[in-house]
Write a structure and sequence with these properties.
Length: 693
């Protein structure tokens, strides 16, 4: 960086990790791989029936690595630049520098590419040769690949997946074009610098693959392929960022999390793009037997979604549209288990049918259905996008989920309330329990939202929804003033991961500060220290709510044992086991900062804030917060908070925003381009009660 400090967004190493699972990933919304891996994946393309379905392996033409003859031994560096969305390999000798850039194009999602550039650094005329090593073979265990005719200098293969997810279901066809890779490239004696570009285009139609490849060639001809990618990525990153004046490892972790999560989302302005969700290990992982086989879990809706909603409602909408398109499968899931409405699968792939290989999770871990609907609720509160619900299928999901929860409850004559029996809570160490407090609370929230939305849309509200929401049991120990995890839970019994603590956030279940504290103190020592990476983020959020900032930071610091060097790849468990490139853990970590340090809470009528952060953080700046169509920039120090509207919808003059301080009730009108400031305190952003003059 210009001031000589290490750039927290650039990760450089002189060697690669010994575990290839920990190599950096290059992905966009459609294509993904790990660098130097022999396969890539295509979003939504799975092979195998039901519990055997997994991301289809596609041979990767971009698995190419530079080498030089043995007589030369240049210095070697590997760099992931999260500001430009590129991975680079550099060989540097006294006479020349050879650089390889590898990337998945952010806006042209059917393209992946790499370039080789050799530049002289000494006045010599000796040819410089760089060898290109690749194990690429155009074969796949999941596709019946056939060779087609070359196209504009590219080789071409195409083929269908072998086994559909459900009998009679679709078997997508993949079409791939790629630039042939020579064994070596040479900078001739009279040349000072030269670049070579290698493209790979993948699509589910021959026409789209060829169109994308031709478009890529045209950009190469004008020297603008890589610049067009870095511009698109830079625009994305500048529009949604969180910057801290604080410890370097924390800054690096945030840049890494944002890079890997934002790599997974559709580019802005692509409403016709069919998005197929985000799996725990992302698109770079998910072959058979790896990273949950590329299936989509609650991880997407609960752990990743809130961060995307805060910055990029268009991407958040794409996730909800993924769930809407799989409603038919969810309806079948409920029907097959003897219930009404829609039961979203614990593990989802192409159809929305349950594809979890182990029946116990698919049958019992039903809180996922409420998690899906909570994402719909958060989206509606943050955007007021009525079109999604009135015209684009959102209401059908809300209605179906409400009907499912009502059919899943049974009346307890003894306790005079509704029970949900025989479930597995988020704490997967326990199964077939009755009245999981998290499951029941998220079911209650589903029903309240469904009834409220029906009222907003003048749709008759079924009495059953109101009755079930009002009378469902949410376990609470009135003597100890805490929430037992389920009926019969014994205090101190080991817990796998965040469960009851999720009542406070993200559920925002009503409770006093005393109860919130008791829940945290009850479950913190009971939770396995080596469990999934997202757990401690939620304990951190809870302690920040209670202004116990150092206790919060001690919890958040536990996450660093899940972050690997040098490319900040997360592992699911701190012992290195489980999923890698664990976006779920990254999503939880981002929430601890974006919702913890700021105190942001999306409610039905406002975006609340209540900042709290440790002493070694002097300033928190969050750019690109989206609320009701406006973009906001928050700059927060211990003493002062500054809010600026950086983008406004056309109708802002008719429905302007204002900031309100909780203690004094003081109001600050928010208008485009202008900043307001006030002493750091709790408050909220809302539509102004009267139009701004």
């Amino acid at each position: 960086m210009a001031d000589g400090k290490e750039d927290p967004a650039v990760f450089t190493s002189t060697s690669l990790p010994s575990d290839p699972r920990l190599l950096a990933t290059v992905t966009n919304a459609y294509l993904g791989t790990r660098v130097y891996r022999d396969i890539l994946h295509v979003n939504g393309v799975y092979n195998g029936a039901l519990g055997d379905t997994h991301r289809a392996d596609v041979p990767s033409p971009i698995n190419v690595r530079m080498r030089v003859p043995d007589a030369d031994s240049p210095a070697e560096t590997f760099t992931l630049n999260t500001r430009t969305g590129t991975f680079s390999h550099q060989l540097q000798s006294t006479d020349y520098t050879a650089t390889q850039h590898i990337y998945a194009h952010h806006s042209l999602v059917h393209l992946m590419a790499f370039s080789i550039t050799i530049r002289r650094s000494a006045p010599t005329t000796q040819p410089v040769t760089v060898q290109l090593r690749t194990p690429f073979v155009p074969k796949s265990q999941d596709l019946d690949l056939k060779q087609g005719p070359d196209f504009q200098g590219a080789h071409y293969v195409y083929g269908q997946t072998l086994v559909p997810e459900v009998e009679g279901g679709p078997r997508p066809t993949i079409h791939m074009l790629w630039t042939p890779v020579p064994r070596a490239v040479t900078l001739r004696g009279e040349e000072r610098e030269r670049s070579w570009e290698f493209l790979t285009a993948v699509a589910e139609s021959e026409e789209e693959a060829k169109r994308s490849y031709s478009h890529g060639l045209a950009l190469v001809a004008t020297g603008s392929l890589l610049p067009s990618h870095t511009r698109a990525w830079d625009t994305l990153r500048r529009g949604c960022s969180v910057d801290l004046d604080g410890p370097l490892p924390l800054q690096q972790a945030l840049h890494g999390c944002l890079y890997y999560l934002l790599s997974a989302i559709p580019p802005r302005g692509s409403p016709g793009f069919l998005f197929h969700g985000i799996s725990p290990g992302g698109l770079s992982n998910g072959t058979r037997g790896e990273d949950y086989w590329g299936h989509v879990f609650w991880d997407q809706d609960t752990w990743m979604f809130p961060n995307l909603l805060l910055f990029l409602p268009e991407a958040a909408r794409a996730i909800l549209e993924y769930r809407i398109r799989r409603l038919e499968g969810a309806l079948r899931n409920a029907q097959e288990q003897g219930y009404q409405g829609a039961k979203f699968p614990w593990e989802s792939a192409a159809t929305g049918r349950e594809v979890c290989p182990e029946e116990i999770y698919g049958a019992q871990e039903i809180h996922v259905t409420g998690d899906v609907l909570m994402a719909f609720e958060q989206y509606f509160c943050a955007t007021q996008d009525q079109k999604l619900f009135r015209e684009d299928g959102g209401w059908e999901v809300v209605d179906a989920v409400a009907r499912y929860w009502c059919s899943r409850m049974v009346w307890s004559q003894e306790e005079q309330c509704y029970h949900i029996r025989g479930v597995m809570p988020p704490d997967e160490h326990h199964c077939r329990v009755d009245n999981s407090v998290y499951t029941n609370a998220v079911a209650q929230r589903s029903l309240i939202f469904a009834a409220d939305l029906a009222g907003d849309f003048s749709i008759p509200v079924p009495e059953e929804w109101v009755d079930c929401a009002k009378n469902i049991k949410v376990p609470f120990d009135a003597e100890k003033k805490y929430h037992p995890e389920y009926d019969g839970y014994s205090p101190g019994e080991p817990v796998k991961q965040a469960d009851v603590v999720l009542l406070g956030f993200p559920l925002m279940h009503p409770m006093s500060p005393e109860v919130r504290r008791n829940d945290l103190e009850m479950y913190e020592p009971a939770t396995e220290p080596d469990g999934p990476a997202m757990t401690w983020s939620m304990f951190a959020v809870g302690w920040l709510e209670l202004k116990e900032v150092q206790r919060a930071q001690s919890q958040l610091n536990k996450c660093f044992s899940n972050i690997t060097e040098p490319f900040k790849i997360w592992v699911e468990n701190s012992d290195g086991s489980g999923a890698v490139n664990f976006l779920t853990g990254m999503g939880g970590f981002l929430q601890a900062v974006l919702f913890g340090y700021t105190g942001f809470r999306i409610t039905k009528s406002s975006l609340r804030f209540d900042p709290a952060f440790p002493e070694d953080i002097k300033k928190v700046e969050v750019i690109g917060v989206s609320y009701l169509g406006s973009k906001l920039k928050f700059t927060i120090t211990k003493k002062e908070m500054r809010v600026k509207v950086t983008e406004s919808p056309r109708d802002l003059a008719e429905c302007p925003l204002e900031a309100v301080l909780e203690a004094s009730g003081q109001r600050f009108p928010l208008s485009g381009g202008k900043s307001i400031s006030f002493p750091t305190a709790a408050g909220w952003i809302q539509r102004a009660s009267t139009p701004a003059r």
